[in-house]
Design brief:
Blueprint (H helix, E strand, L loop, with lengths): L8 H17 L15 H4 L7 E14 L2 E8 L2 E8 L5 H4 L10 E10 L5 E12 L15 H6 L1 H7 L1 H23 L3 E2 L5 E2 L11 E4 L4 E5 L5 H9 L4 E9 L11 E10 L3 H20 L3 E4 L2 E4 L5 E4 H9 L8 H10 L10 H10 L9 E4 L21 E6 L2 E8 L4 H16 L10 H9 L4 E7 L1 H7 L18
Parallel strand pairs: 3-5, 6-10, 14-15
Antiparallel strand pairs: 1-2, 1-4, 2-3, 4-5, 7-9, 8-9, 10-11, 11-18, 12-13, 15-16, 16-17, 17-18
Length: 486
Amino acid sequence: MIEHSTKPLEELRKIRIDKLQKLKDLGVNPYVSDVPDRIAIAHAKKEKEKSEVFVAGRLISFRSHGKIVFADLRDESGQIQLAFKKDALEKKLWDLLPFLDMGDFIWVSGENFVTKAGELTILVKDFKLLTKSIRPLPSVWYGFKDEEARYRQRYVDILLNNDLKELFSKKALFWQTVRNFLLEKGFFEVETPVLESIAGGADATPFVTHHNALDIDLYLRISMGELWQKRLMVAGFEKTFEIGRQFRNEGISREHLQDYTQMEFYWAYANYEDSMRLVEKLYKEVAHKVFGTLTFEINGHKVDLGKKWERIDYAEVIKKYLDIDIKTATDVDITAKLKKINTILKGNETRGRLLDMLWKNIRKNITGPAFLVGHPVEVSPLAKRNENNPKIVERYQIIIAGSELGNGYTELNDPLDQKKRFEEQQKMRDAGDSEAQMHDYDFVRALEYGMPPVTGFGLSERLFAFLMNKSARECVMFPLLRPESM
């Protein structure tokens, strides 16, 4: 009834395929569509002793003791022990037991009782094979040892790993908490295009696809509809948000994915100061409702979201750690500093890209929670200039455990300034910077009709991964992998 675990996989599969054929020869359908009534195993376990119950699930173990066979049955709600007794089953059912294996799905009816060992068990009176599995599961105790196998056969990894299943339950709660918070604050949930003729709203390399009917190349969006949501501000909406998938054709790392979930909101008649206050409340709400705490151990940092969130000035923090004043330094000075700290350069970097590289060299030192402010205008093509200092913009990034876990602006609504910045970004693209933003002429036209003062903010599932203290890839149900060589 249980295969010997040392047998080769193909031999085990052949044994099961033989069983499958014998079941068919006996007139048993191994892949039925009609499932009898059932209740969740969690509910069955609450029923009194001697109560009749009907459950279905996957067999995850067998323990044969002559005229009695014990098994464990699992569904999404839980697990329960089954007892098959020879004198309690019809002969034809008892004779079918040798054809069952771990991994098969069955339906059973029976009566609750408690064993001498004190374990609640169903004494099976009837059962029905629902699905015959022909590939044996890895050991429940050891699971997959190879990381790639875990990611490639994620469905088995989740089946064997309750902690992983709990992780994805938390992730669902994470996004539901974000959604509920914004809805309660009066934001309106919207859907904006995933396919765009101009990939806008972020500095990133987009994925390119082709639209056959229109015979045009399109891009998969690199932001959560930033320029579309701001068009909605022009159209008269005052509070919008979107949660969805976005795509960036960039490198793989512990923090980066190419296909991931992002949330962005836009709020009219408010600025980045208003946004910072709202977002701090959002993060604390998420931490409390999803994790039950405001304190976290993340990548060697001890983070307390409950303490006062400090403000860090972009130029000052770079000067503190790298001893260079970006307010007076030339591009040559910055390039020399980057080379000194062993940063790889292509040679065609703009000032904005050079400044961003300086920042990325020091961010790992900051535990946070903190708001990084005072960004130079060169690194923020969509943010509004500071009224008191036009060389910087009204932007903030949330820094937690050495990483950027949120980004907000007072949005630029001056169409002439926006047009000029798009033109500068387009020059960067033409010079070979694939992450520079494209010139969106229609968005400039929309701004010419007038957009009220607006603040915007975005966070991705990287925040969830950090709060879990896991890699972004581990927190994805089905991470992208190269095709498997067969």
